[in-house]
Amino acid sequence: MLEEIYQETKDHMQKSIEAMKKEFGTLRTGKVTTTIVDSIRVDYYGTPTPLNQVGSVVVQDATTIAINPWEKSLLPAIEKAIQEANIGVNPNNDGDFIKLFFPPMTVEQRQEIVKQAKAMAEKAKVAIRNVRKESNNKIKRLEHDKEISEDEMKRALDQIQKITDEHIAKVDEVLKNKEADILKV
């Protein structure tokens, strides 16, 4: 029974870390990635559709993303969606492609993005602590219902704390790597 709680705790905490990593993908680093435009939705015949489903999205170099729509008639809709997404660049439409030219990042921009990354990491840590609290409550309920002894409860709570500490350390490690990636010129 306790093993199930431990496993469930690990799974939930790992999901918090995965969610943080996915969120980190939206942050800009020294070189652009297509994840910057992943959240953009284009009005495709009345349906909000992800940008990568109405055309090919390709990184051409460290500062340029090219979007080649499957249908040329979608160029204005894609252009409008990019402008509304407010990703910090204006789309350049040449009649066939849309290109996004990202200027090199300033030191201030990099520091601001690091702040955003730290906020995302803190959110993940809060989620992990909430999972710990939930697991601890389940264990205390087991002891209250006399399904486990007080000693078993104390050992189980210590084990949950160890699992929590491991996952918090993982969050810090991922954040440290992301921070280095952002600050690298």
Describe this structure in words.
With 185 residues, the protein is an alpha+beta fold. Helices cover 57% and strands 15% of the residues. It contains four helices and six strands. It has a four-stranded antiparallel sheet, with helices on one face. Strand 1 (41-44) and strand 2 (47-50) form a beta hairpin. Helix 1 packs antiparallel against helix 3, helix 1 packs parallel to helix 4 (150-183) and helix 3 packs antiparallel against helix 4 (150-183). The N and C termini lie far apart (50 Å). The relative contact order is 0.17.
Task: For the largest sheet, list the strands in their spatial order.
Answer: 3-4-6-5
SS class: alpha+beta
* CATH homologous superfamily descriptor of the largest domain: Ribosome-recycling factor
- Low confidence ranges: none
What is the CATH topology of the largest domain? Topoisomerase I, Chain A, domain 4
Helix percentage range? 55-70%
CATH architecture grouping of the largest domain: Orthogonal Bundle
Can you count the beta strands? 6
Domains, number: 2
